[in-house]
Amino acid sequence: MNETVRLILLSLLAVVLAGYAIAVALLFWLQGRLVYPLEQIRGVTRNAAADHIEPVTVRTADGLVLPGRYAPASRSDAFTVVLFHGNGEDLSQRAQIAHDLIEAGHGVYLAEYRGYGGAPGHPSEAGLFADGRAALDFVAQRTTRIAVHGFSLGTGVAVRMASEYEALTALILEAPFTCIADVARARFPLFAFRCMVRDRYDNLASIGRVRAPVLICGGRADAVIPPVQFARLYSAVRAPRRLELIDGAGHVDVWEQGAREHVLRFLDDLRRVSAAVETDRHRVRTAPHDA
């Protein structure tokens, strides 16, 4: 190889490496906008169905006052489901799911995140976890029969809350991911995201600590989160678990394409198990004892 060719190749390599470094720097700088696309959220039309659920507020441990929507369960044996929405939504986008649950007799709490839906603050992993704790604390003051539902980014909050609150009745995950780095790698496979990502939302590391029964629902045609991540999460669950892969469903239509029926059946099964346990306890308490 003569000197001219060698210099040309070295120059090309330098250009490629410089381009790669610039791309890495841009992704690192823009990751907050990718995970929390607040500019996009401002253009989302609110779902007016949320207005039929009572507005409430909660205060986070760091002093933020966040909006929410709350409806108690209409049946004593039903659950109150705390709903954590995705990154491209506000709480109103979960309103149809909330109304389906209410119609079945369950209560709901539509949780909002800092920076979303006009709420104060700026989103971050630690911040959203604080927001989730405030929502759970609000509901826990009113009932002990609590389930948590997360969609997409909301699964990161839901899994963390379920790993911390041992008294939860159920964890429901819709289109969940293993961790943010894995989602990013699936979209940009040339980049080493594990050392770049600030907000990790490591569901795979946390879900093994969850003691409540877990239902995972995902679309087989999900183009945002590879369905293999649903299976990996399912394998990491140590509690009673179900996995429902829904034919024809993508990322945002899992509920409409079949998750609704799976979730309601899951909650109904848990209700029956809970009732059977209570019946057995009552029999033990009221059974005659030998003198």
Automatic annotation (TrEMBL):
Signal peptide region: none
Family annotation (InterPro entries): AB_hydrolase_fold, Hydrolase_4
Keyword Membrane among UniProt keywords: yes
Matches recorded under Pfam families: Hydrolase_4
Residue stretches spanning the membrane: 7-30
Keywords per UniProt: Membrane, Transmembrane, Transmembrane helix
Domain Serine aminopeptidase S33: 80-182
Coiled coil: none
Domain of life: Bacteria
PANTHER family linked: ALPHA/BETA HYDROLASE DOMAIN-CONTAINING PROTEIN
Protein name, entry field: Serine aminopeptidase S33 domain-containing protein
